[in-house]
Sequence to fold (615 residues):
Amino acid sequence: MSWDGQNEAGGGGTQDARPPGDAGGSGGAATPGAPQTGGYGAPGGAGYGAPGGYGTPPPVPPVPPAPPAAPPGPPTAGGYGGYGAYGAPAGGFGPPGSGAGFPLPPPAPPAAPRPPADALRAVAVGLLNLSGLGLGYAAMRRWLGLAVCLIATAVLLVVALPAKPDGVAGGVRYGYLAFLLLAAAHGAWRGLRTRLSWPPLAPVAAVIGLVLLAVPAGGVVLYDHARDNAMQKMLLDRLAAADSKVTAAKGKDFATAQPNYTSALDSYRDLKKHHSGSKAAKLVPDRMRTFYRTVAAPYDQQQYCDAIPPLKYLRSVPGTFGKDGLGSLATWPDDRLATSLYECGVLDLENTSKTTASGGDEDDLADLLTTFPQSAQAAKVEPAVSGTIDKAVKAIGGSDPCGATSRVTGLGSFATTLADKAQGSSKDALTKDSSRADSHVESGTYACGVHQYKSGDFDSALTTMNDFTDKYPHDTHHALAKKFAIAAEIAKEESAAGKHVPTMASGGSIKLIVSNDSPDPVEILYTGKVTGSFTLPACSSCSDYSSEISAQGSACQASGKHYPQKTIYLPTGTIYFLHKPSGDSSATSHADSETLRSGSYYTDCAYTVSSYGGF
Fold:
């Protein structure tokens, strides 16, 4: 008798069913119809019911029903992980000979096959990632990629916002662009064989990706707009800073204010040249008009001399700023500068402290004639110079003929200088003015010498009259001027002589014999009611006296000695003499005086004392 066999899924191995009447033992798998040895009822064995065995075997209880199948699990060859017995080969717990224990779980279902490659899906994922939000990764449920994209975009926003005039650095821009392209390429590669969770259809995802490209494109547009606004604000701030410099310079002298003006002008020029389309650049023309009016403020206040440097500065602006950005302002300073040069130059002509030596502010009027030769202001220069000369000439006969003569001298020289720079009729007229001034200088010099003599300034009178006689030998006052020079020289040594004003009078009733007892020639100068001079030659047989006492007792008294002498006739009254060494003599001059009375004649002797070198 044998077990009803059935295939069981269990610990390990299978059992083959046997047909009734087959002999077999327990524990092995018997082949139908094959003789068995060593089992129950096997021929020649000692099993139950076999000859020589144990008799009839006991009844076998029925096989209990199989327990419910266990959950799926990996097949094992015994031990834990199935329900088979420890060490049972491919079997488990069960009745003897059954070959099976509790059933094992069924094997896991095979993995789903990867979908076929879909190029459109790959493109859709790449487009979704180009938005910078990682939506391509989100559609494939790749959360790490989504997080990386969001972090990169957040970092860009932190760096770029708020928008600055210069924008973000080039490295940041190009780095983020490279990242987007890499994310799009990587997403496309993943999406080639990965189904989308949503939207499930690749065409729909591609359309959404194309639409979402508006996110980075719109972001770029909005950022450029914000950056442009920031740039406009920065340029307007720069314009305001330049305006404040111009305002701060208002009221200051030009030398102090010029650095502010130059800095503001540089800012205006930069806005016009490098930011011509900006709001600030469009305001520059109006600011330049304010700039010109501020710089030229001294002209509006009729401070013409102070207005010249700033107006010259404004004339140089077109060379650096450019005429195209100035319009009528390019020539705006010209007339104002011409007027300032004329007014300041004429004002200096009237200022005696500036015209006594140079005849006026030569630079201003000369600049006017050379810079604006055809201007109405240049045409007024010659009449102004001529009128000033006339006024100075009239002053020669006044209380200060020397000052007036000096002015006329300077004006004549100045007229010559201007004539060299003038053109046309102005040149000829200025040349005539110079000649006319020189003619008045001649008479003015004589008047000056007389004035100096009468004022007691004998040194100056001597110099002036000597210059006059040397420069004007044919002047009608030449002879009298020489007498003033003689009287002034005597008055330098004997001031009382200066009380007599020289005249052309000569001669008198008193005889005066003057002799020379000196080895050097001597010049005798005299003044009083008459003035004159003469020279006595040296006495060849004479010598210096050792002392004044010896000279007084012996001078001009040696018998038989021939002394050079001169006889003159003088009027009565006090006469002043000056014995003056002539030639290379080292002797000093000696002044003396004598009162001449009628009925007598007088002698005078010139001698030299070696001890002190006087006459």
Summary: The longest strand covers residues 573-581. The CA atoms of residues 505 and 530 lie 6 Å apart. The radius of gyration is 68 Å.
